[in-house]
Amino acid sequence: MDSSLAPFLDYLRYERQLSNHTINNYQRELLRLLPLLQQQEVQQWSELTPEHCQAALAKLHRQGLSPRSIALALSSLRQLIAHLQRTNQLQHDPCHGVRAPKQGRPLPKNLDADQVSHLLELTSNDPLAVRDRAMMELFYSSGLRLDELVGLDLNRLDLVAGQVKVLGKGNKERLLPVGKLACQWLQRYLQLRPNFTNATTETALFLSQQGRRISHRNVQARLSQWGQQQGLDARVHPHKLRHSFATHMLEASGDLRAVQELLGHADLSTTQIYTHLDFKHLATVYDQAHPRSKKRRNK
């Protein structure tokens, strides 16, 4: 069974052209799940049944994994099974009828505008601080995914036009506006970029202290560190800035389709979760302003 993993990952990489970050997630989930199937004396894919799969998920549940993590593991297994069926290595679907535990639909957590402003009040001239503020400004200005920011090359950024071209999920390109403040801090960073490397062959926009393309983990760690240093009571990570961008854009414009395009969502239903956040905001305003609401609250 283990021997099927490498060809499947190659399929994701070369045919579906998924990002390394996404492929690593698939690999992690499958390596978590396969041993639990093999513990049930399943040695060949042809021996696998829905009962085996359900028992493996139950084991993950007993180990304390969240419903969301279990759902990700099942989704990864379904993708592998579908690949085996496409390549005629498996004739049946052992995941048929298998269900992960029900999970709630958590709303994306975002920072409010004041929290974002406080986070971005970095005035240090230290090259690392300037680089980090440029990254955070770009995350919030343009709603980038972590993988999109890490994968940016110098030639993708046009500060004169105030735009950046990113490569999103499914290898799809989109052109995004970059705000004035983000452009200013990106310009400052580019002036200091030679402090990170003298190599003219390095094409990455954002560099680590070692002079190489900055890693996903490094970006996550730096944002978390700045959130703590700036005294925010919420943990800061790249997706939180993307969520904040989406929420603030929707609250200001009400244009769901435009926000969908900016975020690079293939399906409008993915973007619609932000309407729940917007409704929550409107409900709060209503509760504070409507006469009958105030009467009800004062009773």
TrEMBL record:
It is found in: Cytoplasm. InterPro entries: CB (IPR044068), DNA_brk_join_enz (IPR011010), Integrase-like_cat_sf (IPR013762), Integrase_catalytic (IPR002104), Integrase_recombinase_N (IPR010998), Integrase_SAM-like_N (IPR004107), Recomb_XerC (IPR011931), Tyrosine_recombinase_XerC/XerD (IPR023009). This is Tyrosine recombinase XerC. Residues 1-85 form the Core-binding (CB) domain. Keywords: Cell cycle, Cell division, Chromosome partition, Cytoplasm, DNA integration, DNA recombination, DNA-binding. Site-specific tyrosine recombinase, which acts by catalyzing the cutting and rejoining of the recombining DNA molecules. The XerC-XerD complex is essential to convert dimers of the bacterial chromosome into monomers to permit their segregation at cell division. It also contributes to the segregational stability of plasmids. Belongs to the 'phage' integrase family. XerC subfamily.
